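HUMAN: Mind sharing a backbone?

ASSISTANT:
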Amino acid sequence: MVHWEATERQTITSFWGKVDLAAQGENSLQRLLYVNPWCCRYFHKFGDLSTISAIRKNSHVRAHGTKVLSALGDCIPHLGDIKGHLAPLSKLHCETLHVDPANFYLLGKIITIVLASHFGAKFTPEVQATFEKLVAVVAAALSSQYH
């Protein structure tokens, strides 16, 4: 089980309330797909993802980015048991979607970059450390069903 300091919980809660799930989610998924093009293979049903322009115009990318950040936000009330909370999603990504678990860590880093870019100076080193811990815990939880 992961230990969360009271200050970390407060940081996550206060910053997450300011996150625009649609905008930052879309930006995060766009960056994942463009910077790591091998990830596009998991989204073949989204259609053309061959260029940054195509990725930016893709409504499926926009919707899924929002869905990803919503799922991340849903973890906040479950900080004490993120692994248990995400077990069904881990199973889905492992058994049905066959997503390489390394991609969860990549996306977590990208989400942190997007949040830092959006919040600027307010995204202090302490805030960054807290969010890096959060996305690492989430990535580990999503990877837990892999054998």
About this structure: The mean pLDDT is 96. Residues 52 and 131 are 27 Å apart (CA to CA). The helical segments are 6-16, 21-35, 52-57, 59-74, 82-85, 87-96, 102-119, 125-142. The two ends are 20 Å apart (CA to CA).
